[in-house]
Amino acid sequence: MLWYLGRRLLQVIPVFLGATLLLYALVFLRPGDPVAALGGERGLPEAVQDEIRERYNLDKPFIVQYLLFLRGVFTLNFGVDFRGREITEVIAGALPVTFQLAVMALIIEGVLGLLFGLIAGMRKGGWFDGTVLVLSLIVIAVPTFVIGFVLQFVLGVELGWFPVTVGRDPNFYSLLLPAIVLAATSFAYVIRLTRTSVGENLSADYVRTARAKGLNRTQVTGRHVLRNSLIPVVTFLGADLGNLMGGAIVTEGIFNINGVGGTLFNAIQRGESVTVVSLTTVLVIVYIAANLLVDLLYAALDPRIRYA
Amino acid sequence: MTTQFPVTHGNLPLGGDGQAYEAGTDKPLLEISGLEVSFTTTEGVVHAVRGADIVVYPGQSVAIVGESGSGKSTTAHAVIDLLPGTGKVTGGSIKFDGREIVGLPRTEMEAIRGRDIGLVPQDPMSNLNPVWRIGTQIDEALRANGFEGSKADRKERVAGLLAEAGLPDAARRARQYPHEFSGGMRQRSLIAIGLAARPKLLIADEPTSALDVTVQRQILDHLDVLTQELGTAVLFITHDLGLAAERAEHLVVMFKGRVVESGPARQILADPQHPYTKRLVASAPSLASRRIQVAHERGQNSSKLHAPTRGGKGSDIVVARNLTKVFSIRGGRPGASTDFTAVDDVSFSLKRGHTLALVGESGSGKSTAANMVLGLLDPTSGAVEFDGKNIAELSPKAAFAFRRRIQPVFQNPYGSLDPTYSIFRSIEEPLLLHRIGSKKQREKRVRELLDMVSLPQSAMRRFPNELSGGQRQRIAIARALALKPEVVVLDEAVSALDVLVQAQILDLLGDLQEDLDLSYLFITHDLAVVRQIADEVVVMQNGKVVEHATTDQVFDDPREQYTRDLLAAIPGAGLEGAEIAS
Amino acid sequence: MPENRYQTVPGGRAPRRGQEHFAAPFDEGGLGAIDAVRDSDAPSSMWHDAWRDMRRRPMFWISAVIIVAVILVAAFPSWFTSVDPRLSCQLSKSLQGPEAGHPFGFDFQGCDIYARTIYGARASVVVGVLSTAMVVVLGTAIGSIAGYFAGWFDTILSRMTDIFFAIPLVLAAIVIMSLTENRTAFTVAFVLALFGWTSIARITRGTVMSVKNNEFVTAARSLGMGRGGILLKHVLPNSAAPIIVYATVALGTFIVAEATLSFLGIGLPPDVVSWGGDIARAQNSIRVAPHILFYPAGGLALTVLGFLMMGDVVRDALDPKARKR
């Protein structure tokens, strides 16, 4: 187990370095001068541009820039943005609400997705299965932002069940509708994944053996079918945490949440490359960490992995 | 071997209502009459079992024998109400202990399972849930069937059951997971599960066919002792007539969903009535091998019974000299790799026009050796000489030409043909690759090859999924023969086939050898088949050659203990000669 | 069943009731034909079987109709409307409902929604098809090389896949597109493909690794076929099924991703008619005129649904477990 953990941690290092280098290169190593593009049509005075270049190490060779940036990542000091704010503080201000939103969405899609998928998988071919299958396809086909609009309009504006926007003061209740919207697509995927997995496990030999032992239906379903179906679903959910945080940009926009997405979007529109790279790096770290966590969960759920 | 771990007896509580059954009562324990089972598929209704009658008495062992598709497993699954998919009992009755169990409500059937009827399933690899400890899975069986006792009691009982099934160090084993067990150990655990609640009837569905022959014998012996001690009736499901006759007193032979013959085991062997049973008795390799043996003992000339050993001394075409193959296996820890010697200093030679069998259980290195002979794997040391030349030293051009002279046929009839290729394309591929003939000539050759393997020429438009296992194996043979090779490596080429089809293919191979003067390197785990086809035998164990002799020497006068174990493990070895020598 | 069908054979010990030696009548046919080749019906390859299976499913026809319709609309929008989506806008008609010749009504700018929905199909289809094509080529190449050649190739390519996989698709696309000045359908497709190929590479790698262990591959090797030949002639054709299934579904998700980018204003430029852009513009007027949101969103959802359903049908039809024998 320890060796497994160690090996996985070791594998994370090149992935992290590679992914950040890739992002950094895509943002900075490209035709056009990000600084010259600042300040609108007229551009900034030459002296100011030079100062900015020096402050952000843009005058140094690319690889040095990247290494300095990496140092910033490890010391949790990303520097200041073009408006003079500490980027670390900007991130620290935005991260918690997005994290809360993503975790809420994860719980919603996990619990409901497993439940629906289990019922559908147990009665494959039945009316519930058919309905769920078609509805899940529709949910996947309709983009998140459309679902967001519609739910915001119907449940928020027309019916008034939920706050229409979240604003400065997010709480559990006001984040509930955004979390549902954020969860929607993944929820459909979880249903389909669970359904397939349950279907496969139901016809597995060990389930027949369990029934032959004299176990009743509840015991067989819970201890053998559901337990084994959890493995691929948990893998999906873990990897999805990163996707949810990255994808929150749309949901946060619709419900006016001041999270990572909103901050990132503003930074993009203002051309604050350093903030953009810093924020995306944080998201990539979350994503990698979530995947690492999945591997550990996977090992906990599947004893075969533990000793591999 | 099996009494090494004594069976706990005396204080074993009986399952169910606690009634003990005496063997020999006149009240049947299980009475199947006119059973009909069908499956609904997209193609229509398939009748898997058609009017089967089977009776099992308490404490008795009965075997259902049949090939794949005979309905034997379906019958067994109908008894325990665990038919897969769309399977349904559509007629007849199944009475257990005098009570009709067809159509019983789910909860009542759940009460019967485990407690009254136990199941030992076929494949030990897939029948244990990989995520639960072995002990937990046995414990489930105890709890589900009303075992009363504290956690500690159950724990003790679980260990007791495992020990009873022949697993040493049971308490520790109970805490392990299935993937830490070998196939034999898993099968023992499954036996422990099947017998946990002391059922009156145990259904053993090909309980050992996935295991090595020697392990198979140990486990069956153990199961015999156990069920006799407990007075459990056993319903064996098997494809091996020899095994069935050896293990059961009453046989039921099924063919295409019908019972074609049933009766006392020895009587059926000695005096089969139905044409199908006759063919089965004549073809079963274990029995055929035994028959040759009996004939031998009586001093009869056995030449009519198996491929004769050729008188003319052929020259060596393939010589393996001190072949060694070492694989490096990556360990769980970084940098930790262990060397595994799959083939260890193996030498043998194959004479022109002869058949050399490489025999061994899984892990013996026989297939690795075959791949080195085929030039698909480079030996770590040693050499393969083909017609006097070391194949490792051939120039690329000569190596390509060498391919024409030696061709393989593999075990799995479902994996050895590319499913996206038509039969024509599959057989034509070698000709095309080696640029032989024009398009017309190639087509003629394909037709010729199909004739050679006794398939209609119309088969060439078909795709592999439209053919049966035996037919695919014929195609694989045709493809191997396309380039007119001198040597054919038959890597478990008949092991996956049903008995009758296996006999047909063996006949075909014999005929082809005679007509085309082929040399066979025959790789197999099944000594029984070896007797029917090989001139010489090399017995391998753990990568090493254990014994190398002519077939008759190996069977009549084995020198090594391991060879003797293998011979003893052939099902039917314990049968009286007179019964099968008809 | 009449009793005389059975014949009881006299035996040694007296057997118990129901266990007398019994043999069924010998007329049970089929013995000789144990291994006959069917030659009545037409031969069926895997693709043939899949096609036969699909033809029977209503879902196949529904999705096929949707896909064909969408492609026709995207290729020849002028066949379906004579109204120009950009030039015929009249501000006076802003947010008005349907009228003759304008069945869907008008958007905020007073443009005909029907025409805009028709013309919006092209952007989605072009981006979807282009990025899927790129992803399939790139992912299949990388995945099959990693899976087939194993060893160092595999280590390096798999790490590379991990690196690209570690950056969420939408996030990467947002960052890069926001920094791209010349935004066209091609650049959008390229960016989506650049970060979207990893799944298909992983799927291909896994399939190739399992296919290459088949005995027909070993048989081809013993014929003297080279590694490249085996990969192209045997391994890849047998790995095609999961790739096709994934590609169909990926096409749908790329269309959604493009719409998301256009919705955020960093996908296609505003002068290109696209469903994502129209949905974005509709959000301001949703309270007064929900219908402006409905049509572009409906067109988008229907298109994606068509591809997703097709993916489902193809998956079921190609499922090896569902195949005969």
From TrEMBL, chain A:
<comment type="similarity">
    <text>Belongs to the binding-protein-dependent transport system permease family.</text>
</comment>
<feature type="transmembrane region" description="Helical">
    <location>
        <begin position="132"/>
        <end position="152"/>
    </location>
</feature>
<feature type="transmembrane region" description="Helical">
    <location>
        <begin position="276"/>
        <end position="301"/>
    </location>
</feature>
<feature type="domain" description="ABC transmembrane type-1">
    <location>
        <begin position="95"/>
        <end position="294"/>
    </location>
</feature>
<keyword id="KW-0813">Transport</keyword>
<protein>
    <submittedName>
        <fullName>ABC transporter permease</fullName>
    </submittedName>
</protein>
<dbReference type="InterPro" id="IPR045621">
    <property type="entry name" value="BPD_transp_1_N"/>
</dbReference>
<keyword id="KW-1003">Cell membrane</keyword>
<keyword id="KW-1133">Transmembrane helix</keyword>
<dbReference type="InterPro" id="IPR035906">
    <property type="entry name" value="MetI-like_sf"/>
</dbReference>
<dbReference type="Pfam" id="PF19300">
    <property type="entry name" value="BPD_transp_1_N"/>
</dbReference>
<feature type="transmembrane region" description="Helical">
    <location>
        <begin position="62"/>
        <end position="79"/>
    </location>
</feature>
<feature type="transmembrane region" description="Helical">
    <location>
        <begin position="99"/>
        <end position="120"/>
    </location>
</feature>
<feature type="transmembrane region" description="Helical">
    <location>
        <begin position="12"/>
        <end position="29"/>
    </location>
</feature>
<feature type="transmembrane region" description="Helical">
    <location>
        <begin position="172"/>
        <end position="191"/>
    </location>
</feature>
Automatic annotation (TrEMBL), chain B:
<protein>
    <submittedName>
        <fullName>ABC transporter ATP-binding protein</fullName>
    </submittedName>
</protein>
<dbReference type="Pfam" id="PF08352">
    <property type="entry name" value="oligo_HPY"/>
</dbReference>
<dbReference type="InterPro" id="IPR003439">
    <property type="entry name" value="ABC_transporter-like_ATP-bd"/>
</dbReference>
<dbReference type="InterPro" id="IPR003593">
    <property type="entry name" value="AAA+_ATPase"/>
</dbReference>
<keyword id="KW-0547">Nucleotide-binding</keyword>
<keyword id="KW-1003">Cell membrane</keyword>
<comment type="similarity">
    <text>Belongs to the ABC transporter superfamily.</text>
</comment>
<feature type="domain" description="ABC transporter">
    <location>
        <begin position="32"/>
        <end position="281"/>
    </location>
</feature>
<dbReference type="Pfam" id="PF00005">
    <property type="entry name" value="ABC_tran"/>
</dbReference>
<dbReference type="InterPro" id="IPR050388">
    <property type="entry name" value="ABC_Ni/Peptide_Import"/>
</dbReference>
<feature type="region of interest" description="Disordered">
    <location>
        <begin position="1"/>
        <end position="20"/>
    </location>
</feature>
<dbReference type="InterPro" id="IPR017871">
    <property type="entry name" value="ABC_transporter-like_CS"/>
</dbReference>
<feature type="domain" description="ABC transporter">
    <location>
        <begin position="318"/>
        <end position="567"/>
    </location>
</feature>
<dbReference type="InterPro" id="IPR013563">
    <property type="entry name" value="Oligopep_ABC_C"/>
</dbReference>
<dbReference type="GO" id="GO:0005524">
    <property type="term" value="F:ATP binding"/>
</dbReference>
TrEMBL record, chain C:
<dbReference type="InterPro" id="IPR025966">
    <property type="entry name" value="OppC_N"/>
</dbReference>
<dbReference type="Pfam" id="PF00528">
    <property type="entry name" value="BPD_transp_1"/>
</dbReference>
<feature type="transmembrane region" description="Helical">
    <location>
        <begin position="163"/>
        <end position="179"/>
    </location>
</feature>
<feature type="transmembrane region" description="Helical">
    <location>
        <begin position="243"/>
        <end position="266"/>
    </location>
</feature>
<feature type="transmembrane region" description="Helical">
    <location>
        <begin position="60"/>
        <end position="80"/>
    </location>
</feature>
<dbReference type="Pfam" id="PF12911">
    <property type="entry name" value="OppC_N"/>
</dbReference>
<dbReference type="InterPro" id="IPR000515">
    <property type="entry name" value="MetI-like"/>
</dbReference>
<feature type="transmembrane region" description="Helical">
    <location>
        <begin position="292"/>
        <end position="314"/>
    </location>
</feature>
<keyword id="KW-0472">Membrane</keyword>
<keyword id="KW-0813">Transport</keyword>
<dbReference type="InterPro" id="IPR050366">
    <property type="entry name" value="BP-dependent_transpt_permease"/>
</dbReference>
<feature type="transmembrane region" description="Helical">
    <location>
        <begin position="125"/>
        <end position="151"/>
    </location>
</feature>
<feature type="domain" description="ABC transmembrane type-1">
    <location>
        <begin position="121"/>
        <end position="311"/>
    </location>
</feature>
<feature type="transmembrane region" description="Helical">
    <location>
        <begin position="185"/>
        <end position="203"/>
    </location>
</feature>
<keyword id="KW-1003">Cell membrane</keyword>
